[in-house]
Amino acid sequence: MQLYTLDKDALLRRLKTSENGLSAAHVARRQREFGPNVLEQVAKKNYLLAYCAQYGNFFAILLEVAALLSFIADHYDPGQGSDVLGYAIIGAVIINATFTFWQEYRADKAMEELLKLIPSLVSVKRDGEVVQITAEALVPGDIMLLEEGNKVAADGIIIEANSLYLNLSSLTGESAPVARSLLPGNAGRSLEAKNMVFAGTTVLSGSGVAVASATGNATEFGNIASLTKNVRKTITPMQREIIHITRIFTAIALLMGCVFFALGLFSGKGIMLASIFALALIVANVPEGLLPTISLSLSLASQRMARHNALIKNLDSVETLGSATVICTDKTGTLTRNEMTLKLLWLAGGEEVSISGEGYRDPGEFSFDRQNESTEHRLTALLTAGLLNCRARIDEESLRGDPTELAIVAAADKKGIKAPEMQKLREFIFTSERKMMSSVYQDEDTIRLFAKGAVEVLLPKCTTFLGDDGTEHPLHDPARQAALARAAAFEDQAFRVLLIACGKKTEEEELTLLGLVAIMDLPRSEVYEAMATCKGAGIRTMMITGDNPRTAAAIAHRIGMDFDRVITGPELEKLRDEELEEILAAETVLFARMASSQKLRIATALQNNGEVVAMTGDGVNDAPALKKADIGIAMGLSGTEVAKEAADMVLLDDNFSSIVVAIEEGRNVYFNVKKFVTYVLASNMPEIVPYILQFFLKIPLPLSVIQILSIDLGTDILPGVALGSERPEKNIMNRPPVGRNEKILDWEVFKRGYFFLGVIEATAAMAAFLSFLLLHGWQYGTVDLADPVLHRQAMTMTLLGAVSCQLLNAWTMRSWEFSAFSVGIFSNRLMLLAMATELVWVWALLNVAPVQKVFNTAHVPAHDLWILLPFPVLLLVSHEGYKWLRRRGKSLITPLPNRG
Amino acid sequence: MKVIAAVNGLVTSDIAALYALRYAALFNYTLDLLHVLNPTDSREEVETSMATIEEAAAEYQIKTERVFLAGEPAPAIRAHLLETNTDILFCSTRMRKRFFEDSLSEKLTRVQLPADLAIVRVAHVDAAFLSENILLPIRGDRLSIKKFIFFSAMAKAFGAGAEIYSITTAGNRRMARLDIGSTKELFLKINDRLSHYAKNLKLMQIPLRIKHALAENEVDQILHHVAHHEFQLMIIGGRRQSPFARFFREDPMARLFRYTPVNTIAFYAREEE
Asked: Which value does ipTM take for this structure?
């Protein structure tokens, strides 16, 4: 038997306590037995350790070994600049580690926000005395005293209640006051018991006494905290991609390093030379700038999304958005305006009036048949009756009152009706049991009563109606049926219907039916287009709402949201997880009458089906689902702090269409990352090939390791970031979502980067190096050049060969499928800035002595630079040609998968 | 055969005794209500507790006996168990640990007992009266026969639905490698290995669900699962650790035991001689 079903005596006996509370000795023992009344905190993450761990990944270890080898080389052969190289590599490792750590450093503040809902001090009765104790010291069996404004510190069962109302929104999501009583009512579980109070909730009014029944993690609030804290996100596509990329590059770098170390040893170069050689190849293969570029690019994307009212909290989610296959969205405020609008009126005489304009402040017109002169008069009478029976007020700065009443006031405003001066005598308040309210006025010597409420409640109280001739007629059955039929028709269109009536008595009886008003929270105007975009992009949209199925379905139809079936909260309760997964795999579902806590189940089931889920939410109890979803989206305007902290993205305008814009940006990020990975890969070839050629041919060293780093961590970074800022390609929302198994580093990227653009760049670099040497009298077979300046000039030409090609590579890479010239020359100013910066850098390499010293470069006369010209042009033309051939070869719009 | 419940007059020990009572009722064993006299516990409260439990036992027509022992609790209990033909000892545990003072339950886990031991951690006072869903989290497919028998006995005793929650731990990299297909394959293999247990529960007419999870941290995953579903009792396998080992490293199950939001029984099978 549940505790809340016991009578007071049995309850106190079961908990071994009394109305006077526990004794000090019992409290001490219970604190040992049950522990302190605290929620289990997340084990504090050791950020120092987390940062140090960044130095232990594959990339980092590779580079650390390379740095160590550099210092060893410098020790045995000083003055060759190996120490500078060592420091440079360490710099690269630190940059990488810091950027990666920065991404991971996301303090979990959701728990902190939850803890704010628990009070620090509570009043309890112990040993017959009322004492204030810390909430932590509360134990089961304690007698809690509840006063207006108190936060509740533990779950408890009420033994005394005096008009006690609680705000249970932290548990249920509903912020309306909930009455508490001494009896549990028809409760299936503790959360439904009317005689229970819960930790994390607030006393809105009244007072009461409750016996603490559960503390700490055992409370209902502890469950939410536990869900919020312990929900683990599955690895994001971007994290998976980074692991994939790291693994491939590490394997290539190690393989090449080992092969050339062995070759060096067998060819008699000595262990030192072979090690340095292997080291150079490892450094050349590792794209040191890749991770910082990805981080910067994601960060820039998140700034662009913020301009579209989507605030990204978790950088990795930017790219995850591009993979979203399902959006689970709330209805109210997200798909709809969260402003009730009176759209249709039915006058008791039989006319229907439609009103234009949406929301509380839009102007609007009344459309009706104006042939009957009395219509205008009866319409005014109905709206005046409605206005006089509303507490809501709309003024220039604020809106006050119930949304339904605001809709009536707004409609009266549109008609220019002002409330006539009358003395209000009394008001019969609205309650969920009565389903109606009335106000009684004195108009000079006449008593006037105005009533509004549910049709089924108010219609039986009407005895007359205002007919189409403007006079009162007895309300016979046909007129009554006409009103009911019209109300049903409005309800079928998802309108909330109220009946308006007036009377001449001070009691709610013998009323005159004036008409019906049909009110609706209308869909946002942008939602229609956003919904169409989702369909085109292969994204399923599912509504999860607390509303009834009929209203939810009508709104879905209105905005063009497709669904195969409706599942209600109670129906979901009965489904097993496997059944839910099966349904969600085959059908698009509209979830109605749902509790927020059920969202987590839906998110989990969708994820188990391989879907990438974007989920919206605003309440405290939405937090677990927001954390579980691949992209948790909190509402910026209506959301609680807990929801915002648990989410990956906050919608500043609560608008569904902002999600769709964010998804487009997410897809864009995916393709932009693909572009700059290809761009970065292309520069690996001119870094690797010179070493391989120098190994097999009798030529001087074409490129130093420090020059390799100057490309990877210098010239490649800014254009890479600029590529990350490119605008979406024109077909981006006409393709299916990025698949979970779709890799950024796929064969196409390898092919384009390494074997196509990379080969051109390597040819450019070696051609520049060898041509320059040959033009200056070098003969094949001379490995050690007598003139060190000539060698440095030649190496500078290799470097410039690679950099000049990368300059135009960045430009042509601006579009993956289309011509780079079709995206607009000035559409990406960062790219122009990057290119200008690169030119300045080239100038510095050629002319600035300190730069030359560090990077082993030398001035090259302008008349020798012509050697560099043909290759960048060749790269540009051939890549544009390659894209053109691809466009011709296949349709760019990939057909969407057919969902059976 | 006997089932013994250690009683000290506190609410938590009453709850542990109620679990013992349901277990004893299933096998029609005698329930011994045992107390080791000590200066902390009030004899009056202990006897009141015993009376309440005896009252409940009468409803199940279970024979009860009161046993009062003296001396050092753990050795005294061990000696008593050696003298009696005992199947299992139920004992509640306290939540707040004291650094230099182990609780009786902790001491009992460190001595070799001739009976199984069930340490009960009470989070909800009323769950011992109504347990509709019982959870048994396991690591992968690792489930001993003894633990399974205790789990199925508790499920049968309460007429509850049973759930075996298999957790496969995997780091970030392994998770990245697993796709939906290979994950399902992994879970099917576990189901296959647990199939004889499933058949057994079917024979006993206990409704069973086997659920799976891939998690980085098994304790976090269990706490999340428990918070998300309606369980009234969880049974976990206890692991004996030397004081030396415990000093240096907390057993993950100990953390689970401390922070569980539902009543939890850690089951320690008797050690073979």
From this structure: 0.81
